[in-house]
User: What shape does this take?
Amino acid sequence: MPIQTLSNYIGGAWKSACEQNTLPVENPSTGEVISAVPLSGMKDVEVAATAAEKAFHSWSALPIKERAQVFYRYKTLLEKYSQELAELVHKENGKIMSEAVAEVDKSIEVTEFACSMPQLSAGEILEVSRGVECRIDRYPVGVVASITPFNFPLMVPNWTIPNALVLGNTMILKPSELVPLSAIRIAELLHEAGLPDGVFNIVNGGQASVEALCDHPNIQALTFVGSTKVAKIVYARATSHLKRALCLGGAKNHLIVLPDANEDMTASNVAASMSGCAGQRCMAASAMVAVGSVDHIIKKLCDEAKKIVPGKNLGAVISKKAKERIEGYITEAEQQGAKVLVDGRGVKVEGKENGYYVGPTVIDYVRPEMRIAQEEVFGPVLSIMRTKTLDEALKIENASPYGNAASVFTQSGGMARYVIDHASAGMIGVNIGVPVPREPFSFGGWNESKFGSGDITGKSSIEFFTKLKKTTTKWSPESKVNWMS
Ligand code: NAD
Assistant: This one.
């Protein structure tokens, strides 16, 4: 079958990109090319920004309850097509079906939250003096761009779409060029839910399309989720054009394991955290800091890791390049003296020999100065570092430039509280390997895991996607009265 080149979605219609260059899209489980994505540039962004700006006037003028109604219907459609959506996520991203189903479920959950925006984003009013009131109303920001990574093709776009749109903004989504297919279904389902044309648009592409989104004057705000390297560039470029920007970056999450931790629960949690979504999660356990004598837990952890089978309960990594990068980290750590306890290099899955699989890998005696201890590996690889004390463990965690998540495994409330207070991360787990806050709490890290203020989901997103108007009113007819009295 000939490979189909995808279109952009602008003003409610599918439009070929102005740019001719395309990139092949692969199924990571098989290495097969499944479509081609256009590499759009400024001309395409220009058309999309014009359509989004045009739609903004009538969409933002609707009562918020009416806008929310579209998302009640969208949520029902996500439920109706959940199996098909999960299969699509599995196909373009390579994660296993149960993980793809969980991604759809999370998309439904965030949409459900957006449906409560009419209640959550209500303004405020107060009589500030006799007969004088101050009120605060929220207004949408305008056209918002949302730039997303490859690891959650359905969920991360849905972190921003429902909240931003219910709050009255219009949007241009720029999905990852590695996984552009789920976004197509998002556009189709939003259309089916009754979203007016132009409120939601898609521009496909890579670097040039992102730069155009940063530069275009009609775009008022921009969210980005991806690697720290690119988050920094995008944040600097978007804010230099005086846009509101929130850019989430990469991660290096430390799980601190204390000797009193529950053996079975800790081992299975750590193994699941480092291997879920093939380690391609910004919440994945990448480093375990083993405090004192926890050999019994490490042994159990290796037993758990060995039960994780590529192609069965472990998905593929995104590309050949990613597989080579991950295996390179393991080899380098081994050469520098670390001990590979479970080795996932060179695995082949029967029937999927061209797929990009890396098996679960556990490496002990990693030292903090090694590259594998410092950089984001983004694969199913756990580096274990040994310390004598909890303070030494926290020193390692604090030294990381990232700050997305950190967890502690212990049965001591006092020790747990100490880690909560002293870890330098935005999301903390106590006996939880993947401490994702669920709605209404918001998602976001610290340090170089996030640039910009506030968080991207939950209640915090209301601040990002709205601006406040403060009105002071006096209806009393008396003159020469100081209203400040
Ligand atoms: P990436 O940074 O390579 O790409 C993200 C987006 O930026 C894509 O849409 C891509 O087209 C665009 N892009 C790539 N290079 C660019 C450039 N030079 N200039 C402008 N735009 C560019 O990230 P990825 O590989 O798709 O995703 C994995 C990364 O995302 C990991 O670092 C992971 O930790 C991070 N991530 C973070 C979170 C979070 O909440 N903090 C969530 C998911 C993923």
Notes: The mean pLDDT is 97. Residues 147-151, 156, 174, 176-177, 206-207, 210, 225-227, 230, 233-234, 248-251, 282, 376, 378, 404, 445, 449 surround nicotinamide-adenine-dinucleotide (CB under 6 Å). The chain has two domains: 8-250+445-470, 253-430. The longest helix spans residues 42-61.
